[in-house]
Amino acid sequence: MENTVEGISLPLIVFGSSLYFVFFALSSTGNFFVVIICYRRRASSLNWFIANLAMADLTFTLLSVLDAISFFSLWVGGQLSCKIQGFFISACYTTSIMTLVVITYERVKAVVNPFNARIFDSVSASKKVISLWVISLAIGSPLLHAYAIVKDEESHIAVCSNEPFGDL
């Protein structure tokens, strides 16, 4: 067991780290380009929603770096970064899910009633995007209380965890 980190073999760590790096690079560049493309094109409700989805996914990707780093060492940044990171990751995936629901609803409206569908209503779309983020932040707000740095009982290493909520 010489070549292990917390019981995980070195080849598995190298493979997992490489895979994570590939996913991180693809997610970062892909979502960044989607945001740029949506920004350059004409403002439409669909572009607003796609850009919002890409921003939520990009933010989620960037925040997950802290989790990857903490896998190999102590939690970086302290108590505040633990709370904020857990809160924003939850808000980002909640925003992603709700944005997909809104896109689906908008597309159903366009298919069911194509002559009344508002294709280029960017003002309404921007209000919906802001509402999605406000709702997501409200849904994730209990995690500001739940996340805290705790010492792992086995390794005595500081980890960011939401122990008060357990499996909830």
UniProtKB/TrEMBL annotation:
Alphabetized PROSITE patterns for the sequence: G_PROTEIN_RECEP_F1_2
Family annotation (PANTHER family): G-PROTEIN COUPLED RECEPTOR, PYROKININ-1 RECEPTOR
Gene3D superfamilies in alphabetical order: Rhodopsin 7-helix transmembrane proteins
Membrane topology label: Multi-pass membrane protein
Protein name: Trissin receptor
Keywords noted in UniProt: G-protein coupled receptor, Membrane, Receptor, Transducer, Transmembrane, Transmembrane helix
Subcellular localization, as worded in the UniProt entry: Membrane
Chain ranges of the G-protein coupled receptors family 1 profile domain: 30-168
Example of a GO cellular component annotation carried by this entry: membrane
Residue intervals passing through the bilayer: 12-37, 49-75, 87-108, 129-150
InterPro entries: GPCR_Rhodpsn (IPR000276), GPCR_Rhodpsn_7TM (IPR017452)
GO molecular function: G protein-coupled receptor activity
Source organism, top-level taxon: Eukaryota
KW Cell membrane (keyword) present: no
